## 1
Amino acid sequence: MRFLLFVLLFLSFAYSLGLVLANNTEVGVNLLFSQAPTMNLGLLLILCLILGIVIGMLLALLLFRVLQNKWEISRLQKANTNLQEQLTQANVVIDRQATAPSVEEAVYGSTATNVHDNHAAQEEEATLTKQKRD
């Protein structure tokens, strides 16, 4: 990888040197609001090329960040939808379990809970009367 990077750097330097040597005409640069001093055309081309590369890389990074954020948002929305469905299914199961009869009711019918409730009430009364005697 470093070798490839070194080769690309060497080729870009050689291209820049060739561009400067091939275009050695002095030109004036008009920047609309000001006038830059005359400079070598090859150097001007290299500066414009470098400036274009830098601006292009910054815009690409910005665009990539925006796309990455959009991908993340869509992934999180899908996960949120999935979790909402799981929550709805869990609520349905909880509602079914809440309305389902207990084991005693299923085996003995509804009278078993009444008997159990009456037995619990009698034990409570016995405890209260015992506390009154003490």
Note: The longest strand covers residues 35-40.
## 2
Amino acid sequence: MILLRRLLGDVLRRQRQRQGRTLREVSSSARVSLGYLSEVERGQKEASSELLSAICDALDVRMSELMREVSDELALAELAQSAAASEPVPTPVRPKLNPVSVTTITGMPDERVTIKAPAEAVDVVAA
């Protein structure tokens, strides 16, 4: 069984260690007891959103970055679990987008570009 609190604790510990900081430094900055932070890092305690916010602030890490890393770890753990159980692993499929037409209108003070695209999400990069 994959425990989210254990994955979260592992990511928090790695973030702290990347910065070369001790549990004592982070617990003091986050205003969390040393023992409790240690238990969170070891996956023994479930951290509340308020506690996670305080720890992220102390580590100067966005909570979204923390959660993204936890999500990546979870995906890997699920794949490993599926492989161990010999279940077929679904392959992620990126949806194909319909063609996009681009029209440039010249002779205007600002050159304008009109893009007609389907309702699906489209990545647009301006030069």
Note: Helices lie at 4-18, 23-30, 34-41, 49-59, 63-84.
